[in-house]
Design goal:
The protein is an alpha+beta fold and 475 residues long. It folds into two domains: 291 residues, Aminopeptidase, CATH 3.40.630.10; 134 residues, Alpha-Beta Plaits (2-Layer Sandwich), CATH 3.30.70. The protein has 14 helices and 18 strands. The longest helix has 21 residues.
Length: 475
């Protein structure tokens, strides 16, 4: 591995060259720091891991201080998980860049399906496996590594930098609005650089300009106070699990696209120009199938007349992310008393997530079979976000990523949701938002065997070292 990218280090500004060499030499230390963070099960969705989220915030703060950042502190909203903030603001006249990542992680899922323990980092075939490797502890460490490389060589950063590493992104950033209200003045910036997105492919960087939004709810149907013998009551007492299955099946059409009432209201399809840009991208369906681990014979969902990336990046989609009835283990011949599901909708561009959440609830409420009791609980609502990927900041990112990876970045969308982006950009007058990240299509973020491609992460750190230099000299 090296930090040269597509150019010769001898041709670079001496300060940039020294910072790149320092980041290159420091890569093993950065990896060790990442592995230490991965060992902390900072699962923000699980109250049993609150102390681990707190411990991870402390560890991130220590990394920031060690890198030379100043005024490192933890900020909270009420009882929420900690945000860790630090800064270096001694470049008068230069832009201020906010570097964002998050230190909380998703639950591991089915631990037995991981090849190694999810919180014990393990390298295999050039990839580092473990929960949080790609999403998004590698992003946090990349920020720290880039800052450290500059401060330990030049003794200064090319531009002013504020670093914010959030602790509740994986639960939808519920405290984000009051957090920005309380701390907007101290976070004021000219550019947002977020390291929670991903690359187009291994070896090819991505520059993300579009995200879907999110809304979700829990639905619970109940027939009785306790289970009943399926032989004695079956045929008369309705089965809540089957009733719930009927309700859930009504949410989509034969292609698997959303079909509940109001699901396409206020949706904004891509412009002709964006569709042309998407159509020009290589459509490697077989490569994506392999990266997803899709079994042979399993067809792709979604209207086949719509391009794959429009389906993945822009349009709404319904997913049942959790379901309760009775586990197969320990089951017996009984009709369970109740069943529940958690339904998640990736909100399409232009859609109001609150309206969509209400539409989803109204649809389910109107389709409860047999008069079963129904309970609906809304969970989170985040709108989609997109921008036009042009201007001085995007030009700087192009140059930096080309230098770090040796190839030009792909302007791309991501079907996931990052709640921080839209509110922060809006709070500061629509500042440019640069979404980079350590993941790739094979990273399996949120799934079992999440992993980080170490070579691409090395290139990302080099790119960020370059980007701080490029943002300081807009052209």
């Amino acid at each position: 591995m090296n930090a040269t990218g597509d150019d010769d280090l001898d041709d670079l500004d001496p300060a940039l060259r020294a910072a790149l060499v320092a980041a290159d030499h420091d890569f093993a230390a950065a990896r060790a720091q990442l592995e230490d963070l991965v060992r902390i099960p900072s699962i923000s969705a699980d109250p049993a891991h609150t102390a681990d989220v707190d411990a991870c915030a402390v560890a991130v703060g220590n990394l920031m201080r060690d890198a030379g950042l100043e005024a490192v502190r933890e900020l909270r909203v009420g009882d929420g998980h900690p945000y860790v903030v630090g800064e270096w603001c001694h470049a008068p006249g230069a832009p201020t860049v906010l570097l964002y990542a998050h230190h909380d992680v998703q639950p591991p899922g089915y631990v037995e399906r991981w090849h190694t323990d999810p919180f014990t980092p393990h390298e295999r075939d050039g990839r580092l496996f473990g929960r949080g490797t790609a999403d998004d502890k590698a992003g946090a460490v990349a920020h720290v590594a880039a800052v450290r490389a500059w401060l330990r060589t030049a003794g200064a950063l090319p531009c002013n930098v504020k670093v914010l590493v959030e602790g509740e992104e994986e639960i939808g950033s519920p405290g984000l609005a009051p957090f920005l209200t309380a701390h907007a003045a101290e976070l004021q910036s000219d550019v947002l650089l977020l390291a929670d997105a991903g690359n187009w492919a291994v070896g090819t960087p991505g520059l993300t300009y579009s995200l879907r939004g999110l809304c979700s709810l829990d639905v619970r149907v109940r027939a009785t106070d306790s289970p009943l013998h399926s032989g004695m009551a079956g045929g008369a007492v309705p089965d809540p699990v089957l009733a719930l299955a009927v309700m859930l099946a009504s949410l989509v059409d034969e292609h698997g696209d959303p079909a509940f009432d109001g699901c396409w209201d206020d949706y904004e399809p891509p412009s002709p120009e964006e569709r042309a840009r998407i159509a020009a991208l290589p459509d490697d369906v077989d490569g994506l199938r392999r990266a997803w681990g899709l079994h042979d014979g399993v067809a792709l969902a979604g209207d086949p007349s719509v391009s794959l990336f429009e389906r993945l990046w822009v349009r709404p989609v319904v997913t049942v992310i959790g379901i309760d009835g009775h586990p197969i283990a320990g089951s017996s011949n009984q009709i369970v008393s109740e069943a529940a599901a958690r339904v998640s909708v990736r909100v399409g561009r232009g859609q109001d997530p609150l309206r969509l959440d209400r539409a989803l609830a109204d649809h389910l409420r109107a389709r409860v079979p047999f008069g079963l009791e129904v309970e609906l609980t809304s969970l989170e609502t985040v709108p989609a976000w997109h921008c036009e990927p042009t201007g001085w900041a995007f030009d700087a990112a192009d140059r930096a990523l080309r230098g770090g990876f040796g190839v030009a970045p792909v302007r791309m969308g991501v079907g996931g949701t990052i709640p921080f982006v839209g509110p922060f950009a809006a709070a500061f007058g629509g500042i440019p938002s640069l979404l980079l990240g350590p993941a790739d299509p094979g990273s399996r973020i949120h799934g079992e065997d999440e992993s980080l491609h170490l070579g691409d992460w090395h290139s990302l750190i080099a790119s960020e070292v370059r980007l701080l230099h490029e943002l300081a000299r807009p052209s």
